[in-house]
Amino acid sequence: MLRILNKIRKTGIITEDFPPVVRDDETEIIGKQVQAEIAHLFAGSLAIRQVDAGSCNGCELEIHALSNPYYSIERFGIHFVASPRHADALLVTGVVSRNMQAALLRTYEATPAPKLVIAVGACAVDGGEFGISYASCGAVNHVIPVDVMIAGCPPTPTALLTGILQAIRQKK
Hints:
The chain has helices spanning about 1-10, 25-40, 60-65, 100-110, 120-125, 155-170; strands spanning about 45-50, 80, 90-95, 95, 115-120, 135-140, 150. By secondary structure, it is an alpha/beta fold. The chain has one domain (about 45-170): Rossmann fold, CATH 3.40.50. The strands form 2 sheets. Strands 2-1-3-5-7 form a 5-stranded parallel beta sheet, sandwiched between helices. The protein has a two-stranded antiparallel sheet with strand order 4-6.
């Protein structure tokens, strides 16, 4: 143990410095607009329930990126919740598989009105590569009503933020 501590003392700190933080101006502008709309319509915060209806998880990675320190959407008043009963909006990804159809309907019904439904990604918008088959219901709007569709495979975090802004503005 003493030998290891001595080696640490002799070696010192050998980590790199943090790179300077550079914010994306477009994200910042859209975020401020979202924040203003949320303050007006939702009394300061928008609760989103994300539902994976059968995706490849590409869209989920971009959605998770919204919460990382670079985008940090919580500073704009957007947060993700675990229950649809606490949600103002549903963010649905993936083509709706037959196994998830009933779960998506129950989630939609459990979300209090007025609710926003946002379809994220090519699969959720039009069925993507899968379309309608024995295992797939196709796009999200074949199962529940959709307010806004965000295209892309996967859409960027900035496109997601723009889609959320568009959905909020539609509810005015």
